[in-house]
Specification:
Blueprint: E1 4-6, E2 14-22, E3 25-26, E4 35-36, E5 40-42, E6 47-50, E7 53-54, E8 72-76, H1 77-87, E9 100-103, E10 115-118, E11 121-128, H2 133-139, H3 144-151, E12 156-162, E13 164-166, E14 171-178, H4 184-191, H5 199-202, H6 211-227
Parallel strand pairs: 8-9
Antiparallel strand pairs: 1-14, 2-5, 2-9, 2-14, 3-4, 6-7, 6-13, 8-12, 10-11, 10-14, 11-12
Length: 228
């Protein structure tokens, strides 16, 4: 882990609009697995978050989802509103496959490695979501992967440092921020949008990335250095 600027409890930065759990779906759009837990619906009770995932949720494609650094996924109501306007449909909490729907968080601007207290759990931001064909198929929007990537507001994956229960309405408080200053959006811009100009800046967050994602980012950084 990289160094942290300990900020302690601060005024609430945002709140949880809903905590969402999967309804397992089948269909051609689910790909080779034949089923998916991307369709998530708001729970009407506190939900326990653990190091291995969200109790009551379902992960079907364990090759690409469900690692410790993907224990939970958060997305913003503001981004649901953006895509509702873009697509001419009404997206509800959970429709992006998120376990936590947040309001006022601007989660993609969070720093890689930033730590949040929500309910009695402590979560750590690990990186951005990478859109896939299952996501596009669930929304039934051809070209969504390209559009979502170009927009670049991905929400964040979270590791669970301290297990605990989270409920709708819980405040989100920042416990610490790494001093490298690298936002999730900037990491995504380098690795998925090809923003080579961000390479040296993003290099600062490498110690805070999970090993698999660190290798990908490091390769992008090295490529940018060789072509500079």
């Amino acid at each position: 882990m990289g160094p942290f600027a300990e900020v302690g409890y601060v005024e609430p930065m945002s709140a949880v609009t809903s905590v969402n759990l999967a309804v397992v779906r089948t269909g051609e759009w689910t790909g080779r697995i034949g089923k998916s837990g991307i369709d998530k619906r708001p729970a009407d009770h506190p939900v326990r978050f653990t190091e291995t995932g969200v109790e009551g949720d379902a992960v079907c494609d364990t090759k690409h989802h469900g690692a410790w650094y993907q224990a939970a996924y958060a997305f913003d109501t503001e981004e649901l509103a953006h895509w509702s306007a873009e697509l001419g449909t009404e997206l509800a909490p959970g429709n992006a496959g998120e376990n936590l729907t947040l309001t006022g968080a601007d989660s993609t601007s969070a720093l890689v490695g930033e730590r949040w207290a929500i309910g009695d759990a402590v979560l750590r931001v690990t990186g951005p979501r990478q859109p896939c064909r299952v996501f596009a198929g669930f929304w039934d929007v051809p070209g969504l992967v390209k559009r979502f990537t170009a927009h670049g507001r991905t929400g964040v994956y979270l590791a669970v440092e301290q297990p605990g229960e989270i409920s709708a309405g819980d405040e989100i408080r920042v416990l610490s921020r790494p001093d490298h200053g690298v936002q999730v959006a900037e990491l995504f811009a380098l690795t998925l949008q090809g923003r080579a100009d961000l390479a040296e800046h993003v290099a600062g967050c490498l110690p805070d990335l999970p090993e698999k994602w660190r290798a990908t980012a490091a390769a992008r950084i090295e490529s940018a250095r060789l072509t500079a």
